[in-house]
């Protein structure tokens, strides 16, 4: 009996020993608060951190690092335009339950070389694997078309980004990635997630928060529009009419 006891205990302890060797990520962001003020032209966030063993020493092997910065999710209605008798009109439409307002991913290598499709879909590693969750029944081909349309539009506006090779790892310890926020970046709470991957398996993950908020005049206008919607709309109409009248007077004098 004793002859089998030692191998059995070693076998039972193997998963624990394997888990103990998994790394620990210590993430940080250069800015935890991004203020949108008048004249804001965008900014660049530095996402960095360390890859350590549970004992706090340098990792004993190389890991692929993937960094994802995701903005607040929102429900959005997508509509296709169709030309009828020379006029563009709204045609088919669908509503997505959880489209991120902003999404950026950076990795040490192409995602396809790091994980398989199943793992990429589980962790939403890449624009191809975003879980947009359409509301109601929709044809799979239509879902693909609408999803690709949303991704293409947001990529054009700088709100969706992919940077394969955008993460640098130094001495198996320190990693860093730079992610650009455009001038039209939406406000809200952003999540910066870091994944350490080995042999196609996510062995560690960690996250931190970034708040994008309006300040100064922009904040005052936003609060006024939210709290006094009717007055804000009336004021906007009056300003538009006044600017039109002023422009007409100026052109009349020329």
TrEMBL record:
Pfam families: Alph_Pro_TM (PF09608). Keywords: Membrane, Signal, Transmembrane, Transmembrane helix. The chain crosses the membrane at residues 230-252. The keyword Transmembrane helix applies. It comes from the Bacteria. Residues 1-20 form the signal peptide. This is TIGR02186 family protein. It comes from Novosphingobium beihaiensis.
């Amino acid at each position: 009996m004793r002859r089998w006891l030692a191998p059995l205990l070693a076998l039972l302890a193997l998963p624990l020993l394997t888990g103990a060797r998994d790394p620990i990520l210590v993430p940080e962001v250069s800015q935890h608060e991004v203020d949108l003020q008048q004249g804001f032209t965008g900014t660049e966030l530095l996402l960095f951190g360390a890859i350590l063993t549970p004992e706090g020493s340098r990792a004993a092997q190389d890991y692929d690092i993937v960094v994802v910065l995701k903005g607040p999710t929102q429900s959005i209605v997508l509509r296709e335009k169709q030309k009828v008798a020379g006029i563009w009109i709204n045609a088919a439409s669908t509503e997505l339950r959880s489209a991120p307002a902003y999404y950026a991913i950076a990795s040490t290598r192409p995602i396809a070389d790091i994980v398989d499709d199943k793992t990429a879909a589980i962790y939403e590693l890449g624009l191809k694997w975003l879980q947009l969750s359409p509301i109601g029944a929709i044809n799979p081909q239509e879902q693909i078309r609408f999803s690709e349309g949303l991704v293409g539009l947001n990529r054009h506006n700088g709100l969706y980004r992919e940077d394969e090779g955008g993460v640098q790892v130094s001495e198996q310890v320190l990693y860093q990635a730079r992610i650009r926020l455009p001038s039209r970046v939406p406000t809200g709470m952003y999540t910066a997630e870091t994944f350490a991957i080995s042999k196609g398996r996510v062995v560690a993950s960690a996250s931190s928060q970034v708040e994008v908020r309006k300040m100064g005049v922009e904040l005052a206008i936003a609060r006024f529009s939210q709290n006094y919607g009717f007055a804000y709309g009336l004021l906007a109409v009056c300003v538009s009419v006044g600017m039109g009248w002023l422009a007409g007077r100026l052109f009349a004098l020329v």
